[in-house]
Each structure stands twice: as structure tokens, then as C-alpha cells.
Amino acid sequence: MNEEKLLELDKVGQSYTSGARTFVAVQDVSLTVQAGEFVALLGPSGCGKSTLLRVITGLQRPTSGAVLYRGRLLRGVNPHATIVFQTFALFPWLSVVDNVEIALKARGITADIRGPRAVELLDRVGLDGFENAYPRELSGGMRQKVGFARAMAVEPELLCLDEPFSALDVLSAESLRSDLLELWTSGNIPTQAILLVTHNIEEAVLMASRIVVMDKEPGRIIADLANPLPYPRRRKEAAFVQLVDQVYGLLAGQTQPEHIEAGTAPGEAGRTRSLPPIAIQDLAGLLEHMNVVATPQIDIYQLAGDLALSLDHLLSLLDAVELLGFATIVQGDVTLTPLGKSFVEAGILGRKELFAARIRRLPIFQWLFALLRAAEPHQLEGSVVKAALELEFPPDAAERQLSALVNWGRYAEVLTYDDSNELLALEPEMAGADLSVA
Ligand code: ADP
User: Fold this and answer.
1) Global pTM?
2) The 210-215 sheet, strands edge to edge
């Protein structure tokens, strides 16, 4: 295929304003997509994948930077790009064929051509025989195929797929991935390039010719990898596994020195490290698993497979164990630290004590303790703490931080929270304690 430049993002930035604060959702994203490329945009939730898709399709104008399509500045909706969403909204009162015809009608195609063309598109995605069925009669995978047929009816040059397989069961997702790959590699569709948004690493390695890896806070590109593996790709092949492993390593990052990992307190200069939204029992489960595995260093890819965790869940847990100093991550391998081992091997109370000692070192907890100590009688309404957190985090993130502070603080027995009056308080022994870090 030719190497025509279709899409070009030049230093695209997207900020959202909430009250007096501005939050950077996407920072300085530069990306070019050429004809013939199948690009996977991969990253954890919140790294700005959907924002970028909206910007690319012209549904949203970025705060800074430029979007060019075929060298021209994009103004308004991009007529050359179409999005297939996670769950494609079919019209339930229209038959399958009518659901596809409606897209052809919108393009001004005459009635005599529309019918046969819709049937042909449905045939191409493997839905012949179901033309007259209604969406409710179809499985999730089949409905998504109608979505693909409808997207193709638009004949987009750039087909954007927003996690199109994530709402499907494992088998339907796998068969739909093969069907899409077959359509793409056969060159039977007018689509010139595909941009697949996903947070499934194996899916990206299975399908894409290029993998763009993003990270969050702020959303940005951290790597852009070519995937030269020939189709059909096999998940068990060494080169496949190696690439998956490499991407896990990129996403999990490297453990930084403690003062950098811990971040700063809200309101202070520097980045406040957000507490990952995890359940303490999951964190304990992960550490227990690591403690019984024979090798001291464990491949993150291996860990994901052993524990069958979603990427987001695994990255959040790794974030938490790093933050607490229970494990370190170096080049895609995670290693339990002596502190992590002590935690796993301690009893219930011993674990709580160790956990409490670790969170007392974190600037965000020190900040919260100081707020509560300054209050009389050492308690505050959750909404007051949330408002204070909003100086640093967007409102939805502030809510999640409050809930993480409460969960971690309750487990460590340093905080109490009363759901009935929403009062957050220091445990009595903490109220008078010396809060400086030992
Ligand atoms: P992803 O698709 O990778 O999960 P999003 O593009 O949805 O990421 O979001 C990126 C960041 O921008 C997140 O922190 C999210 O909370 C924030 N965000 C997205 N849309 C809005 C909006 N309309 N207003 C405020 N913040 C938003």
C-alpha cells in the first residue's frame, strides 16, 4: 500500500476547566497515520484515548495544537473518519439490512442501489441470512458486525474503533477480531487506515501494524512501536509474547526513588501522586502470589496471565505496591522487596501496622492528617476534604481519592469514617501522635 499521510496530530493538547482549576487531559500529542497502517492506541483508562478519538473525528476541538487531514487543517466533523463504538447503537425498530441502508441513505445513495449494497456489506461481515432479523434477535457479536457493516457503508478512509470488542464475550470477541483482520488484510474494503483504541495489550499485538502506547496524568504518548509480525499472528509464538511483554514493561514503568514515587501533597508544587483505586485484599492477594512464585523477579506479562486481571486492574495494583515500597518494577519485571515480604508473612495486625507505617510516609496522607489535626475535634466532613482535594484533582478524581484515602486509612486503623454523617476523623491515638515521619 502507498504511504500517503492521512492524519496528522501536531502537539495536540486538551484541557478541561473545573471551577478555577484547569486539568490537562492530553498533553502534546503528535501522531501521524499513513494509508496502509493499522494503528492501535493503547493505554490505561483515563490516558485520553477517547478524547483523542473525538479530536481526530472532529467531534471536539482540541485546546491547543492542530489536527490535519490529508494536509488540511480539520475544521468541524471529519468527513473521512467514522467511529465504531464499544456498543454500536443500532435502531431496534429497523431490521439488520435497514440499519445498514440508513447509512447509505445518509450518503445520498439512491434507493435502487441501497438495498443490494447493504446486502453485500452484510455478506462481507458474515451476516448473510440475517438481513431481515431485528437487532434483538442477534447476539452481541452479531450486532457489532452490523455496526461494522454500517461503518463500512460510509466508506471511511479512516476507520476508528473505540474498544469495539470489550463488551463482547471472549469467543465472540476473538472471532470478530479475526473477521475484521481478514477484511483488512484482504484489501476488500475501501478503508485506508484503521485506528483501534484499546486497553488490551494482546489485542493490539494481534491486530495492529503499529502500537502507540499512552500513559496518564497527563495523557501522553510514551512509545510508538512497529509491529512487523506477519499475519496470521499466533499468541503463543515467541516474538508475539516478547512484544506483549515489552508493552507491559512500558506501561508499568520503572520504580522511581521513593521521594519521586510518593509525589507531593495537594497544594504543594509538583505532582500529587494519586492513590490507585484498589481493594486492600487484592493487593494482599497479589503480594501473596508473588511470594509463592519460585523466582524473585516475575514477568508482569506472566503475572497478568496467572491472575487473569484486566490491564487497568493490574496496573493499579502494581502502582500501589510500588508506592508502598512492597515491590519494585524494573524493565517489565516485578520483585517483592523485603518490606513486601514482611507484609505477606505478617499476621492480620502485623500487616495493618506495616501498612499504617507506610502510608504515614505519603505526602497526601500527611496533608490529610494535618488538616484533621487542625480541625476541632479532629474531624471533618467528607465534602470538605473533597473540596480541598479538588484544588489538585478534577472533581471525579477527587471523589476517587477521598474514597481511597478512607479505605486505606480505615484498613490501617488511622482514620475513621462514619457513613451516616459523612464525618472523617483521626483515630484517637493518631490525633495526639507525632506525625513526623520516623
Ligand atoms: P480514556 O479514553 O483513555 O479512558 P478519556 O479521554 O476518557 O480517557 O479521559 C482522559 C482524561 O480527561 C480523564 O482524566 C477524564 O476524567 C478527563 N475528561 C474526559 N472528558 C472530560 C470532560 N468532558 N470534562 C472533564 N474531564 C474530562
Assistant:
1) 0.86
2) 81-84, 158-162, 193-198, 38-42, 210-215, 220-226
